Amino acid sequence: MSQKIRVLIVDDSALVRQLLAKGLGMDPEIEVVGTASDPYVARDKIVQLKPDVMTLDVEMPRMDGVDFLRRLMPQYPIPVLMVSSLTQRGKQITLDALDAGAVDFVAKPSTDLARGLAGMLQDLRAKVKQTSKANVSHWKNKQVVRSAPSARAPQGALAESTDKVIAIGASTGGTEAIRQMVTQFPVSMPGVVIVQHMPAGFTKMFSDRLNQLCAMEVKEAENGDRIMPGRILVSPGGLHMRVIRSGGIYQVKCEAGENVSGHCPSVDVLMNSVAQHVGSNAIGVMLTGMGSDGAAGMLAMRQAGARNLAQDEATSVVFGMPKVAYERGGAERLLPLDRIAPAVIDLLSERKS
C-alpha cells in the first residue's frame, strides 16, 4: 500500500478546520497530520510534521495567507492548496496567492457552508491528491516579485501579422507559467488566445492582472472579439472559446457548453478550432497542468501544419498536459518555461523568411 498524503490544515475557524479534517479523512489515501489557526502556528508545524500538502485560508489574523506564502515558499517550498471564499475580494487575494506560490485553490461555499459542502469536500480531496504531485522546488530561494505595471512599448523588431494566431493551454500552475511567458512578448506579437482552467470570475481578475504586466493588451475574451497583433484574449471561466475566421480576420466565439476533456473552458475545444480555421498559420503552446486536456487538439493543430511546443517536466508544476501532448505527437519539443517565448518568436521569424 502506498504511503498516505500527509496534510496540514491552516484556517482561523475551528469549525472549518474540523470540517476539512473530517472531509479529508474520508479518503483512505489522505491523512490529516495537523491543523493550525494562523501562519505562526503553521510555520512551526510545517517544520515539525513535514506535511506533503498544506491547505491554506487567505484571510487570517496576525498575517494573511498571501504574506505567509511570500515568506514561506523561498525558505520552505511546499505544495499549497488555497481554500478561499468566492467573494470579489477573495478572487483578488486568491490570484495573489497563486502568484506567491500556491498550486491551486478550492472555493468555500460562498453563503451557507452546509449547502454545497459535500461537493466542495469532494473537490478538495481530488485537488489535495493533484497538489501532492506538484513540483514546487523552483520556489527555493526565489525572490517573489510583486505586481508592477510595465510600459507598453515595443520590445523587439517583430513585424505585425494579422494571419498568425498563438494558442496557449494551461491548468494547474498555469497562472504563473502564463505570466512568465507572455510578459516576454513584445507588443508587436500576433494575437494570442489562452485557455487556463479557472472558474468564472477568476479569469477576469487574472486577465486584468496580466494586462498590468504585459506589453500586449490582455483582456477576458468576449464573444466576437477580434484576434489581432498586440492583443491577448483569455477564455472566460465557464465558457468554451473557439477561434473562427470571418473574411480576412480571426475572431473568438465564446459560448456555454458541456465539459470537454473534463473542462469548460477546454483547451481541446480551443485548439481544435485553431486547427480547423487557422491551420499552418498557428503556433500552439502547452503549459503545466494536470490531465490530458488539449492533447487531441494540439495533435489536430500539428496535423494541420501548426508548430507546437510544450513545457518540460523540470519547470512544470504538474507535468501532465505537456507530457501527454508530447507523447501523442502534438508537441514537437519540450522546453524549459523561460525558453518558450523566445522559441515562439523564432518560429514566427522562420515563417516570415
TrEMBL record:
Its main location: cytoplasm. It comes from the Bacteria. Coiled coil: none annotated. Keywords: Chemotaxis, Cytoplasm, Hydrolase, Phosphoprotein. Its EC number is 3.1.1.61, 3.5.1.44. SUPFAM superfamilies: CheY-like (SSF52172), Methylesterase CheB, C-terminal domain (SSF52738). GO terms for molecular function: phosphorelay response regulator activity; protein-glutamate methylesterase activity; protein-glutamine glutaminase activity. Phosphorylated by CheA. Phosphorylation of the N-terminal regulatory domain activates the methylesterase activity. CDD domains: CheB_Rec, REC_CheB-like. The keyword Hydrolase applies. It catalyses: [protein]-L-glutamate 5-O-methyl ester + H2O = L-glutamyl-[protein] + methanol + H(+); L-glutaminyl-[protein] + H2O = L-glutamyl-[protein] + NH4(+). The keyword Coiled coil does not apply. The modification 4-aspartylphosphate is found at residue 57. Pfam families: CheB_methylest (PF01339), Response_reg (PF00072). HAMAP family: CheB_chemtxs. Involved in chemotaxis. Part of a chemotaxis signal transduction system that modulates chemotaxis in response to various stimuli. Catalyzes the demethylation of specific methylglutamate residues introduced into the chemoreceptors (methyl-accepting chemotaxis proteins or MCP) by CheR. Also mediates the irreversible deamidation of specific glutamine residues to glutamic acid. This is Protein-glutamate methylesterase/protein-glutamine glutaminase. It comes from Syntrophotalea acetylenivorans. The gene is cheB.
